[in-house]
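Bug report

Summary: structure tokens for Cytochrome c-550 PedF differ between web form and batch submission.
Environment: batch mode, default settings.
Steps: 1) Submit the sequence below via batch. 2) Compare with the web form result.

Sequence submitted:
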Amino acid sequence: MNRKIIPIALSAALTLALPVPMLLAHGDAVPQAVDTTGLPDLPEEMAKENPWRAASGDLLFRAVEVGAKGFNSNCARCHGLEAISGGLAPDLRFLEANDFGDEWYLDRVLHGYEQNGAVKMPPFADIFSQQAVWAIRTYIETRPDADEMAAKTDEIHSLLDKVKALESGADVTTAGAVADELDAVNDQFEALSGAPRAVTVLAQAAHILRADPARAAVAAELIAGSLRD
């Protein structure tokens, strides 16, 4: 895959050089605290690298869920829904999932960014807990290529039908088999950041089904929502 890697140097590609028109905005313009319930505590001192990069299971999916909410409330206004930038702000999906990328990310999140005396990004050091900082990072770095996802729309619709078929009731074995299919398709996508794994709605739906087949309707709506978008 050709991967557009963001340089870590403070270059034009990584500066918010232009104001974002309000008509293109998403989310709240006022920084919002993030509810991190369900995430484990982290040491008081801020980590230098994403502590959840190698996470799996409940921790990974909870971090992605919390991070998605935090991103949509605070970051999507400039960086785009699903972290897909419209071009006026950096496309954070391509920020490398390594210590260099983490360093750049932390600097911007904690200290904000100004250009020619104008605040292009406010600092979040006094607003985000460490759990929120790294949950948002985890969400961003697990984003897949949206175009590759779109190319598999028919296959995703077929999987959605299988998940919906579980809504009337399914045993663990049947739900697990559908979850395996969801994971198999999810694993065809790479994270644009180079992170160990992309986490799409398919992986999230699979996790839901394995945890509780009775929540098949929730898993189905998650997939359906991505297709509507």
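Above is the batch result. After comparison, the two runs are identical; trailing whitespace caused the diff. Residues 92 and 195 are 13 Å apart (CA to CA). The longest helix spans residues 57-74.
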